[in-house]
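Can anyone check this?
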Amino acid sequence: MEKKDIVVLAYSGGLDTSCCIKWLQEELNLDVVAVVGEVGQEHDEDLDEIRAKALRAGAIDCYVVDMREDYADNFLTKAIFANALYENKYPLLSALSRPVICKYLVEVAHRYNAKYVAHGCTGKGNDQVRFENSIAMLDPSLTILAPVRDWEFNTRPQEMEWAAAHGVEVPTTQGSPYSVDDNMFGRAIECGVLEDPWTEPPSDIYKITVDPQEAPDKPTYVEIGFSAGVPVKLDGEELSMVQMVEKMNVIAGGNGYGRLDMVENRLVGLKSREIYECPGALVLIEAHKALEDLCLEREVLHNKLELEQKWATQVYYGMWYSPLKEAIDAFMASTQLCVTGTVRVKFYKGSCTVVGRKSIYSLYNEALATYGQDDSFNHQAASGFIELNGLSARNWSANRRWAGAHTDIDDAFANPQPLSLKPSVLEDSTIETLG
């Protein structure tokens, strides 16, 4: 019997990846090893059933890998160090889970001496780039397959018809009109009526956050303890990173906090309306930022802000294993050595407010900051500081005035003009003529 080449497939248990198993077998004559990554997502079926479904679809083996601890300790902590918010809003929940899944796909590929790794992403989204970049950076010798991009059916009814004809299990219930991706760091919801950016999201899309109007009438306070940038305590109780994220999802989500509604610039070039629920992620980043404000020196903090956006963009673009992102990681890690302390957070009706912070490494000096009688700031030093601080700009201004170059403000005072609106380039008569 001819020995077939092996492909390792990222498997979710849904219709797409179940069809991928059969398609890879029949169209490319490959044996399929499926890998299911547990990263804290909700499951319509338990993991044993998902594994059984992969085997029924024709996979020669299926690994169910619990990646939660690795994901939380080695991926989410780095995101918190970087206060990672793509476009200063989105905490990268989908982009963060892909590289950890790819890490295990490549490990299984090496175990089976496989030539191929496959994913079930479409040709329109960001995830195809994240999977393929990560796999290629981990092992450039592997060939990456994308069946959903390549097969001949383009609509879900066509796919279901093909599945039924090829013995692949077809969902017996009407599927959700939304596309949902989730893990312990939150949920991403798109498609259906959400594709109209003017439409308010229906309440039924939310699962881990309550409506702020229905949140408790009294505020909830929590204290989050950090050690070298990592959140390790909640109200004095030591927790693992997995436990911390899970508990913060419950507390923040129960107070109506953590919803995002945004138009996002996808890597592939289009704009997409996205709804996110990420209560735990947003709280931990907000609290971490507050502690950094207390503990980081000014120039470190200012330069870190720029690199945070670069880090988030690198990860969003699927460059987790890139040299630039890893170099930024080294900078971020060095800034966290003294980010140790406690942050007090107040939740109320959908809001999250930092109301207290303390640290033995605090750079806040009350004697310098106070306006009271204990003020130790040298006020007399300010005039000399201002003299030198503005010297270059004053020198520039004196030169331009001596040379006769007037500033806009000179012209405005010399020749004041009433505010007027410019007429349209095309008058009505012109429009009629063109018509």
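Reply from J.R.: I decoded it. The first helix runs from residue 15 to 28.
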